[in-house]
Amino acid sequence: MVQINQHYLKLKAGYLFPEIGRRVTAFAQANPSAKIIRLGIGDVTEPLTPSIVAAMHAAVDEMAKRDSFKGYGPEQGYAFLREAVAQHDFQSRGVDVSADEIFISDGSKCDTGNILDIFGSDNRIAISDPVYPVYVDTNVMAGHTGPADESGRFGGLVYLVGNEANGFVPDLPTERVDMIYLCYPNNPTGTVASRETLARWVEYARQNKSLILFDAAYEAFISDPSIPHSIFEIPGAKDVAIEFRSFSKSIGFTGVRCGLTVVPKQLMGTAPGGESVSIHQLWNRRQSTKFNGASYVVQKGAAAAYTDQGKAEMRGLVDFYMTNARLLREGLGRVGIRVFGGVNAPYVWIKTPNNLGSWEFFDLLLSKANVVGTPGSGFGAAGEGYFRLSAFNSRANVEEALERIQKVL
Ligand SMILES: *Cc1c(COP(=O)(O)O)cnc(C)c1O
To answer: Among 220, 226, 246, 248, which residue is least crowded by beta carbons within 10 Å?
Structure first.
């Protein structure tokens, strides 16, 4: 019989969102009249904005005519989008990233997982706890870890604990690591990293010859002008970092699918014989072999986000969700809940009241308020006793969910 990748067997069976789904389905079946409000999974709810829809319609019309039809596009993305990203997301902020350092993809979840293809299996890897589970699980799948212990922590990974004492922004590792995943603004805690914090990380990486994998999926939600949008705003970061970005949350592309990865041309890794190898070239080779580019229609839609009208529409979407976040943050604070995040990120991270466990609080909210959130423990052992609420919903649903939660507490 065919042998399987045995590392998959180490993954924890009851993965977070399926388990939430099971509990919600069971409750809904037992209580068919309950109107359940979902503030759980981080998926957007508002429709695509007009300039993006118009650009995608126009692109479909091009595809419908022989003389403007497009087949396979460049694996790295069309120049019109790579140039728009370089100019508007980086150069306009004084950040030196060029179009040929940008790789357009079908989303950054895929890229954060796929990037492991080009790295060796003996790297020491640091991951925050709590964390976006994709970073952990893709390392498990790649065979970079031992089995999980009873708290769900995998042998071989270096966990960097976020807690109330450090404001859910973990300290530097006390040991040397080769790769570090950072995500700011953070999912799940909604916290941000200051310029000083990121500068400390870049300094650590430069001194230790480590690589930072920086996930900036939520950079569009930053309103505080002192918070960096990109790791490349920190001098010296181009020698030590890769950055992932996504159109999913900023312009509602979770279903449309488009993201990008910035791999600086000067970024180098080491081969077993000690020689330096361009990581940019390896990623280009990987993408050219295993990926055939994001769809033309989708890239045209993403590029429309960089027009004046597109930018204004994106600001409108972000402001809408961030008003939801503010309502949640303030409304929960008023009933005595300790709240983190929700200022420069669309997630509100709360301490469960009365020291309830994360899943106990989940069951309480579901059964008494008919509101679904995400147990903090699902993001790592250090998330136990915390709970994530997402700002991605209609205003009416957020207001009603808040009212119901306030009554229960
Ligand atoms: C939503 C999200 C992404 C984006 O993933 P896509 O594949 O681009 O939709 C990336 N990182 C984090 C932490 C996220 O929450």
So the answer is: 226
